[in-house]
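Q: Two folds, back to back.
A: First:
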Amino acid sequence: MTLGCGASVAKVILVIVNTIFLILGLGIGIAGLVFRFGTDLLGDELKDAMQSLKVDVVGGVNVYDVAGSLSLLLIIVGFFIFLVGGLGCCGACCQNRVLLVVYAIIVFILLVVQIVGVALFAGFRSKFDDSVKAGFKDILTNKYNTTGTDDLSKSYNALFNLYECCGVDSKADMPDNNLPKECCATSTTCTKSSLDVRSGCYSKLKDQIDQYNSVFIGVGVSVLVFQLLCVLFSFCLCVAIGREE
């Protein structure tokens, strides 16, 4: 079956792109399998250390459990990418209209889901911020100790020192009148009445993330355009194949 110039270009692009997806999906899946089942190869002492390691900044998080959940996610994502890439690659190589249509539909659904997800996140950004703030404040109120030597208290104090901030929105979020020295710019004895108490941490963390918004937007738009082109190339190739049959 001889295809026109445009259809041939679309075919080559789809084959190249989806071959990359095949390799990428396979790599992600293998990484997930290694994380998931490779822990059996770890020594008992190392496994026990991972199981006992916890990060408790916004709630108890067991590193070993997180690694297990992440590995399962990698396996699922890797398999899905491999499947989609296989559909696109086989459909283009074999000039199979059914595979190409299924591939285009899946990619289009992903495109719509991503757009809806971004729209929902933008619409509920304030509620998301409020929820995250509430979590931080709850930890400060119920678990944080200004003079504590536990991991949680030391983690928060390190955060205050790193970002030169105090509390979530302000010093009012701190549970005691006496504040850690990290909350003040110069005072060694820091209290809520000190004149050099630093501002809240959440706005500073948010500002640091927001400075990369242009990068996130650029990458996101590029991915969406790329997916849309894959859908268009698939349908163009389908039409060309139909004309040749």
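A: Second:
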Amino acid sequence: ELFKQIQDIKSKATQSESMVQNITQDVKSLDYAKRHLTHSVTVLKRLQMLVTAVNQLEDLSKNRQYQDSAQLLQAVVQLMQHFKQYKSVVQIRQLSDRIHRLKSYLEDCVLKEFEQGFSPEGALVGQAWILHDACLVASVLSESTQEKMIKRYVDLQLKSYRQIFSRPTEEVSQLDNISRRYAFLKRILKSCSEVNIFPDHWAVNARISEKFCACTK
């Protein structure tokens, strides 16, 4: 009788252990499914946000609303980072290509703004706030775009300096006439600060000074 009771206890213990294992497995499966579902929902929400942002960015860029474009472009770039692993999906790849074309279009736009925003002598002829906002877009686009804009501006500002001070037969071009050269540089730097177009981290005044020294030596 005692032996039978022990056997029953062992049998029930085995059944209980099996039940616990089954429940644990079910809980793990449910937890995995929940986490997978949560991840899928998050991805879909991000995709919806990305598509909406791209649509809005296309409209903003066409209307030359560069300040808003810069902010939205930053959001698009950040959101797109979440979809790198999905590039094999046709729709994601198409969206990525669309963003690439949009970035190229924006680069063309902001570079054109700079081409038309200054006279051949380097004087500001466009609207300073548009050029300022175009710089914001360039900062988000790439260092390459930023560099193109800085180089164009610096070259324009020093164009007349090279013309005036690079003539060896002219008295003004002599190196000992340093005060006039320094006055020219001060005038350019003051003009750059007054137009207030470039972000501080571009350090355009420093680039002008660097180029000035290279032209002077």
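Q: And?
A: Residues 2-62 form the longest helix (61 residues).
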